[in-house]
Amino acid sequence: MKKTILVGLIASMMLFAFVACDNSSNVGLGNSVVTKIEVTSEAPSIFVGDTVAKSSLTVVGTYLDGSTFTVPETDYTFTQNAAASLTDVNSGELTAIGTVAYEGFNYSGQPLSADVEGYVYSVDKLVVEGPDTPESYYFIYDSTATFTSEYNPANYTVTAQALDDEDNVLFSRELTYVADEDATATFAADSTSEYKVTPAKTASNATPGAGTLKFERNSKFANVGGSNTASAVEEPIACQLDTVARITVSVKDDAEFIAGAALSTVTGAPTTYFTAKSIYQSGYEADLATFSIAFDAAISATNELPVAGSTVTVTATSGTLTATTPITTIANYITGFTASYKSGATVKPGESIVRDNVTISGITWENSTVGAPSGFTPAFTLSRNDMPSTVATNGSWTYVVTLTNAEAAKEAPYAYMTVNAGTTTTPADEA
After folding, report:
1. Predicted pLDDT at 26
2. b/e map of 143-152 (b: 16 or more CB within 10 Å)?
3. Residues 6+ away with beta carbon under 8 Å from 298
4. What are the residues whose beta carbons fall under 8 Å from the beta carbon of 45, sequence distance 6 or more?
5. 232 with 212: CB under 8 angstroms?
6. 5, 76, 277, 320: which has the fewest Cβ within 10 Å?
7. Residues with Cβ < 8 Å from 308, sequence gap 6 or more?
8. Strands of 233-345, DSSP E
9. CA 107, 108, 112 angle in degrees (round to 5)?
């Protein structure tokens, strides 16, 4: 009961305080509470499938006191209507194409929204304007006449038109072409491109001659009823047979040439060590799947790669074309080994490891045929040189053994070695 009386008293005091406020406080509230928003920018004309940029809209809000302000882009969202929901296509009448919603505080406490209106049209026809004299495009003779020239959109203007029932132009605009820079093929359009181009030959693939470029609208221009049926447009071109002007050869990033290895390991598998390309007269490049590699006469006479650090020139050949590249030999290197401590030997906690009791074995070389250099003796370091004093005499400690030979530096292989602790430290065997 006391709680109910207290709540009622508080409510009465708040009402009194509100009524007692002077007009100045109402003014402060009036220019901070938004009552409505509206879109005041010019209604855009779009094709079905176009995306309206939020930055092209001007949204104006109205405060409680009647004053207005331009709503920042960060304070509202814009949602464009799906193509299938658009009405009055090609009518020239305004139709709702989307909605803006204000995200700030407002008078009603509910989100404020407003329609975005525009004129909507279908892509009914493509008009292509190109050079007066047909351009030349290169192709490679194969089963599909692969074109090797890149399309140059600057030489063509592609315009989309919306038509009425009597083929009068209601709306038109130029379409943009965006090449797919990541594609390996020529004539590849990015998904954002508004049209695509496909070249074709009209005669035998084997001979130069006449051809066409086919221009088609992007599939983003969605179908609405029977509209958006713009036919492809073809422009004439001259097709020129592309030929290989030269070849190039380069060493692959992961290729290694180990001193002492037989030359046949390289010449017998050239694509393992090298990348070769055909460079066509148009500038088109294609990987060479088959080519041969040869060393100069002096190296060939030895039948093995020279000492580490040597620079040798190799020659790639494809048909009558050749290209050269230098290679540098490296020393054979260790990729793995095992380390062990003398069987039955122990080290007293707090005392030093007996290095002569450490055995390095099972060394694996990158090139097992070349193997170890003459007089090779493994050298190593230990993660620590003593048995920790904290280890119990019936315990053990695991050491990390790292080889310090130059031949181990490339991969820096390491191995684990467990040493048993004991009441005494076992000495090395006498020589």
Report:
1. 46
2. eebbbbbebe
3. none
4. 118, 119, 121, 171
5. no
6. 320
7. 259, 329, 330, 331
8. 233-241, 244-251, 274-280, 285-287, 292-295, 311-318, 321-328, 334-341
9. 90
Q: Which two tokens stand for residue 147?
A: 């074109």
199, containing H or E segment: strand 195-201
Given a contact cutoff of 8 angstroms between Cβ atoms, the answer to whether 248 and 218 are in contact is: no
Nearest-angstrom CA–CA distance, 68 and 37:
9
The stretch 248-271 carries a mean pLDDT of 96
pLDDT average, residue stretch 27-55: 86
DSSP string across 101-167: EE-S-BSSSS-EEEEEEEEEE---EEEEE--SSPPEEEEE-STT-EE-SPP-GGG-EEEEEEE-TT-
Instruction: Identify the residue whose tokens are 């401590």.
Output: 341
Mean pLDDT of 94-112: 85
| Triad 359, 365, 371: Cα angle to 5° | 95
Q: Specify burial of residue 74 (Cβ count, 10 A radius: 0-12, 13-18, 19+).
A: exposed
| Residue-level pLDDT at 52 | 95
291-334 pLDDT, tens digit each: 999 999 999 999 999 999 999 999 999 999 999 999 999 999 99
Task: Using DSSP bridges, classify how beta strands 112-121 and 45-47 pair: parallel, antiparallel or unpaired.
Answer: parallel
Placement of tokens 């029977």 in the chain: 226
Residue 22 has pLDDT above 60, yes or no: no
As a whole number of Å, the end-to-end CA separation of the chain is 104
DSSP-assigned letter for residue 429: P
Note the Cα 30 to chain centre separation in Å. Answer: 51
> pTM, whole model, 2 decimals?
0.70
Average pLDDT taken over every residue of the chain: 90
134 Cβ contact list (under 8 Å, min separation 6): 235, 236, 237, 238
Strands 146-147 and 321-328: unpaired
Alpha carbons 160 and 52: distance in angstroms, whole number? 17
Instruction: Please report the beta strands in 290-331, taking only residues with DSSP state E, as ranges in sequence order.
Output: 292-295, 311-318, 321-328
* C-alpha to C-alpha distance for 307 and 256, rounded to whole angstroms: 13
What is the CA 417 to chain-centroid distance, rounded?
44
Cβ proximity of 350 and 385 under 8 Å: no
What band does 106 get if pLDDT is binned at 50, 70 and 90?
A: confident
